[in-house]
Amino acid sequence: MAFIAINLSFMHNTGFKASFSLLHTDYVQLNKSWNYREVMSPFYRIYLIDGGQGSLGDTDQALVLEQGYLYLIPSFTRCDHSCQDWLSQYYVHILEENPTGLSLFAYSRRVIKIESKPEDVILFKRLLHLNPGRDLRRSDDPREYQKQPLLKDFKQRNNDIPFADYLETNGLILQLLSRFLINEEWLLAQQTRIPAKIQLAINYIQMHLSSPITVTALAEHVNQSAHYFSKLFLQATGQRPLEYLVQKRIEKAQFLMLTTSLSLSEIAIETGFDSLSYFSRSFKKVTGQSASQYSRANIF
């Protein structure tokens, strides 16, 4: 059973194709041991709090986890988690895959907090009913969670459930994600249309991450001079072309670290780095952590 690709259109008719897949979902009661810093996951995480209190913090804000609110942590968003006493929550972890590399929250990588509705609890309960045993309780040890067979096991379960349940699960995931698309910050982030040629270059980068890529080659691909292309790319994305390229390579590396058994040297090659030392320096620069620190921190 293949992942279902869902076509989404933004406010300015920017084409967006992605597949969203369930990784984990459960209802849990947490205590003071739920205290993790500098977590940066390649997965989306949505929390619905129904009791107690905790906190989530990203690079420039700290949010209280409190009853009656939904929280979204977009993929590749560095975040601290803590619980002072106790906290009860529904959660779902979602894998997004997109051949263009354009994430739904690419321009709003911050923790988002919105007021929950009574139907949100119904959505979570239905997810749990359709997908029993999709929790993390059997894999609290990060050394176990990040082994390839365990993650494969969860992904395989998407293929094992009845097709009707699979379709409904995807629909429930989209409903939960859609709750965050009316957030003012997300809407503002979508108001800048990316020029067609810059989007073409972004697509090229995503499809050729393991190959050598230069600014000159990207500019030639979209029939522009290197200088003009670099200026336009910076205006559209806020990053220079090579800075953007390195970030996307590191994001792919993060994903491979948690979903494959490849060595760091093999991941470096797979993501287009010509040496392990360059990969290591780039990983630390982008994530603020060494590759080994990243592995230890990401247990969600």
Automatic annotation (TrEMBL):
GO terms for MF: DNA-binding transcription factor activity; sequence-specific DNA binding
Domain HTH araC/xylS-type: 199-297
Keyword field: DNA-binding, Transcription, Transcription regulation
The keyword ATP-binding is assigned to this record: no
Gene3D superfamilies attached to this UniProt entry: Homeodomain-like
Highest taxon of the lineage: Bacteria
Annotated Pfam families: HTH_18 (PF12833)
Protein name: AraC family transcriptional regulator
